[in-house]
Amino acid sequence: MRMKREPGVQIKTQAQLALMHEAGQVVASALRAAADAVAPGVSTADLDAIASARIGAAGAVPSFLGYHGFPATVCTCVNDEIVHGIPSAARVLRDGDMVSIDCGASVGGWHADAALTVGVGAVPAGITKLIGDCERALWQGLAAARAGARLSDVSHAVERYGIVEDYVGHGIGSEMHMEPAVPNYGKPGRGPVLAEGMALAIEPLLVLGSADTRLLEDGWTVVSEDGGWSAHFEHTVAITAAGPWVLTASAAPPPGILAGGQVIVRAAQPAMQPHPAG
Ligand code: MG
Ligand code: MG
User: Fold this and answer.
1) Which candidate, 164, 184, 199, 246, has a CA 20 to 30 Å from the CA of 146?
2) Alpha helical stretches, state H, 72-210
3) Cis before 180? omega within 30
């Protein structure tokens, strides 16, 4: 989402977080299926169709389709495209490309949002490093999403060289984009105190070269100003008494991605204090 700030962060009940977790597992499945299909000769519209089928089969509702008129189930961004790319049958992946896939879904009106980036065939070592750095940035941020921490502790944990500042993460729950904005940079110890029942979509965008961005004439696709390639990772995380619960992850991160932090990735809901609905 675009940067903005307003007060008020929604607190979810256990039952509402359970629905967000259901949605999160659908998103995880859709993203995994689409990522597994990435190969030279596959179009970004093919990836959209795969994710759409997964969400439909699960009885969930795609969050992106029709959102402010967005025409697809996922956003796909190839190479220098940073965020909000529209899938197209004309955009055929080639060996050496990289592609990010961003997907949201809701169950019972409660949303989850996640993204990942993969190489297409054989990619240069610098691109593999960019992808790994971006995924590490995400998991550092997730590990910082703890009750009692300040919002900018998350931002600070994500921050690193090459972060795009024009687009930020967001609160999520009964709507896909809610307060607070979650910048991917900043000093720690600022912003709202994180509390049990809050949920955040943390989503670093990392580019090679300048972090300046430009909007294409389609009104959606954001590219890097100087053509540098970009990676995007995102998870939806709930703040719980037991720690950060990554609602959109179906498995622990790959080895070496999360160092020195603790997160919860599991099917069962962690124990929480009861909250009033809100
Ligand atoms: Mg997203
Ligand atoms: Mg998002």
Assistant:
1) 164
2) 125-143, 151-158
3) yes
Q: Could you tell me the residue ranges of all domains in the chain?
A: 14-246
> Ligand 2 centre and the CA of 277: distance in Å?
23
Reading the chain (278 residues) residue by residue, the pLDDT tens digits are 555 444 689 999 999 999 999 999 999 999 999 999 999 999 999 999 999 999 999 999 999 999 999 999 999 999 999 999 999 999 999 999 999 999 999 999 999 999 999 999 999 999 999 999 999 999 999 999 999 999 999 999 999 999 999 999 999 999 999 999 999 999 999 999 999 999 999 999 999 999 999 999 999 999 999 999 999 999 999 999 999 999 999 988 888 888 777 899 976 565 555 544 43
CA dist 64 → 8, 78, 268 (Å): 23, 18, 27
Give the C-alpha separation, 198 to 173, whole Å: 8
Architecture of the domain whose range is 14-246: Alpha-Beta Complex (3.90)
Q: Residue 201 Cα, ligand 1 centroid: separation in angstroms? A: 8
CB distance 167 to 83 below 8 Å: yes
Residues near 93 by Cβ (< 8 Å), separated by ≥ 6? 38, 39, 40, 41, 42, 43, 44, 78, 99, 120
The ligand that comes nearest to the alpha carbon of residue 202 is 2
What's the 97 CA to ligand 2 centre distance in angstroms? Answer: 23
